[in-house]
Amino acid sequence: MKSLVSPAGALRAGIFFAILIAIPLVGGPSWLLNMLIFTVMYAALSSSWNIVGGYAGYPSLGHAAFFGIGAYAVGITFSKSVGAGYSPFWSLPVIGLAVALIAVPVGWISMRTRQDVFAIVTITILFIAQTLAFNLNGLTGGAQGTSVAAPPFPAGTYDWPFYFAMVVILAVTMLISHLISNSKFGLALLTVRADEDKAQGIGVRVTGVKVSAFALSAGMVAMVGGIWAYYVGFIYPQFAVDPLITIGIVLMTFLGGKGTLWGPVLGAFILVPAQEYFAQAFGASELYLLAYALVFIVIMLFLPRGIIPSIAMARHRRWQRLAGEAGSTVPAAGGTSTDAMDPTATMTEGTR
Amino acid sequence: MTRMLQVDGLIKRFGGVTAVDSCTFEVEEGTITALIGPNGSGKTTAFNMITGYLKPDEGRLAFRGEGVGRPRPAPLYRRGLSRTFQQARIFPDLTVEENLIIARGGSWTTMFQRRVSRKDHQLAMRMLEEFNLQALADLRAAELSYGQRKLLEFASVLMSDPKLVLLDEPTAGVNPVMIDTMERHIRERHASGTTFLIVEHDMQFVMRLCDPVIVLDRGAPIAKGTPSEIQSDPKVLEAYLGS
After folding, report:
1. Cβ atoms of residues A61 and A126 within 8 Å
2. Is residue A114 part of a domain?
3. Looking at CA atoms only, how far is residue A163 from chain B in angstroms?
4. Tens of pLDDT along A279-318?
5. Which A positions 2-41 lie with beta carbon below 8 A of chain B?
6. CATH code where residue A105 lies
7. How many structural domains comprise chain A?
8. ipTM above 0.85, yes or no
9. Could you tell me the residue range of the domain that residue A261 belongs to?
């Protein structure tokens, strides 16, 4: 048995978040913090998506809908209160909970389908949400968009509250992800991903765990959407409920390694800066989308399981070869060494 | 003896084909009952309906004297009805130990527990000792041989202390030594009070182990009796050999 938090894992997380917190305090160009906000935002979104798309194996393409609902929740609630200050941040847990509750029936219905059908069903959820955002003029302002009252933060550190809010929410999603992967709930999700019918045959409450994962994931994504809305200040339907958000999330999670703790975060920290760079390099055109497609093709060709699981597999193979050379009997020796180099990788690797 | 399982008039049609046709039989408590029949006689279809994987078109089921309104796999499992699959279905990415633990069939609150608690570990190790698989506990299940996977699947469905275990071809694709091992484990569990219903093609295995034997042909039972009765039953011979 392993302890809930390994020293190495705690150290890794501690250093990572210490650096994230230190960056604005140390200073740097303003574009850096702006880019980091979006990077951490996507890391949090991917981490949340990973709970249902990675652990449970249900690749939802509709998560941008929940992002949009969170964004509009903040936008509509705080549109007229000038100088709402920090209160939109405090409202986030309520928004997250409400969206999670909305997501229960949505997940319960859509998760009656699997794999490609599920992907199609969830992408229709996205477009339904977008259509609603465009047409519920009284509520969302339709295509004209709606604005959030600008907060009275001092100009010099204007971005700080948004940045730290994103960092906090990333920490929360990663903590939840870690706790799930170390719980029976996470184990149950893995059986759902591997063989749902067999899981039912051994008494796993398949529907319960997968819908819970969906709702949890949707609620977290909505909270991120709320921070985003407050930060950008103006919400248009095509940006709040944007298929590109979904695609970005999925791509980042696949790149880093789905079903791992650090994979989605790593993917975001690679792809968001890369996307910014491409957007700069190709000017205001949408050519960067081609680069996106290229990245996806490269991942599918060379790293179908993502960076972190691939590294873990390589380490495992090397270890097996070394064990073979040392002449030890492999299967029995597996028990003693797998803690250090875990072949399963999919879920356990990042959690240590 | 009481009825462990009562199958009453099960019917399943696939298009124009009636795979299981007014199938009625019962499994008495404390027996190792075999369900045999030629290919396509509806054994696995009947299995799937009994375990809730397939919705019967008609018919009723009773498990341990209580009717089962709408059979569904997970609730049935928690009530004490376990099954294995023809092609050993295990979770390759989980460890051998985790494969056992997830099959404990605990209540909702256990979902908040640690992935492998101390109690889980003890129970899993006890089961692995029974099956002589202790050395494999921390191995990924993907690394097991086919025979070991069959043993693991069998062991995992015993984790909930089932009353009735349905085995779908436990010896298919397994080497002779492993067949003996499988037989020994079934006998041990039977001796400690578990009832078995086994679909099997290996007749020697069936004749050694099972009593009674139920013969299905074209979706319905045509004979039931001891192995020797079945072997000399003309209807059975005709079903297997006849035109």
Report:
1. yes
2. yes
3. 31
4. 777 776 677 778 778 887 888 888 888 899 988 888 888 8
5. 4
6. 1.10.3470
7. 1
8. yes
9. 7-301
